[in-house]
Design goal:
CATH topology: Nuclear Transport Factor 2, Chain: A
Distance between the termini: 10 Å
CATH architecture: Roll
CATH class: Alpha Beta
Strand order of the largest sheet: 2-1-6-5-4-3
Mean pLDDT: 86
Number of domains: 1
Radius of gyration: 16 Å
Strand content: 25-35%
Number of strands: 6
Low-confidence stretches: none
Structural class: alpha+beta
Helix content: 25-40%
Length: 169
């Protein structure tokens, strides 16, 4: 792994040239497509892995509990595994911000029966052609566990747990 593997800005530069900054309307349209796919997955209309549509083949995805996943095939496995058993959860989106090619999405984990949400923030890097090359989801694992316990929530089917050998950044 090179030092730039975890630096999405460095991945978007051409040998010392200024980084390519894509049109804000193009980025906004891709955010909306991403959010449409998320809403459909939350509603059970599609599998979570269908989000692969808005990611590059060499995507890097980092999750607070599940670690680092590189490549669209690993992303698909991660999405299928990590979302199993979470039917009934909601992940409301509150706002987004765009800074150059970087996108920030504010959302929450909303667990059935919980009195409070577990807030999260996604940082994405837009790579052009309607695709993101990087996503990092930040949230408090300990707070999520507390909210799950207090809610009395139980999975709708056997859940997967994060693998012990997951890769951390």
């Amino acid at each position: 792994m090179s030092p730039n593997d975890n630096n999405p800005t460095a991945q978007n530069q051409n040998a010392g040239d200024d980084p390519v900054v894509f049109d804000r309307a193009e980025i906004s349209a891709t955010i909306e497509r991403y959010l449409q796919l998320r809403r459909a997955a939350i509603a059970g209309e599609i599998q979570w892995s269908e989000l692969k549509e808005v990611f590059t083949d060499d995507v890097v995805f980092v999750d607070s509990m599940w670690g680092r996943h590189q490549g669209v095939d690993n992303l698909v496995k991660f999405l299928d595994d990590s979302m199993k058993g979470l039917q009934g959860w909601d992940f409301p989106h509150f706002w987004e911000a765009i800074d150059g090619n970087r996108v920030f999405l504010r959302w929450s984990n909303r667990i059935p029966g919980a009195g409070e949400d577990n807030m999260g923030l996604s940082i994405l890097e837009y790579a052009g052609d309607g695709k993101f090359s990087y996503e990092e989801d930040l949230y408090s694992e300990s707070h999520l566990m507390k909210v799950m316990k207090q809610s009395g929530w139980r999975p709708s089917e056997p859940m997967m747990v994060p693998p012990a050998d997951r890769e951390w950044v």
